[in-house]
Amino acid sequence: MGNEPPEITPEEDAFSILETVTDGTEVFTVEATDPDGDNEAITYSFTEDYPFAIDDGVVTVADSEELEADDSFELEVEATDELGASSTETFTVEIDPNLPPNSMKMNIALLLLN
Fold this sequence. Notes:
Keywords: Calcium, Membrane, Plasmid, Repeat. This protein is mostly beta strands and 114 residues long.
């Protein structure tokens, strides 16, 4: 019996977040299945350093100050099974410099009051 790598099956592979998000903000979740074994034993990691963190497949913002450096990030995620077989998938995170809707509403409200 061979050791097949986990299969990463994204529902989406592109996401957008506001440039103003804070550290710890959840961006997306990666899921993989292991054709040979236990899906719970799959570990997730990045192939490079990014201003994001990944824990049990949940990708979060790790360094929000670095988000201003680029318009988007191509995150290469690696899923590794308990026997060491791995696969990768690339996800795009677009950085939106616009203010969040609540801030926009607040600015409009302030204008109306003046």
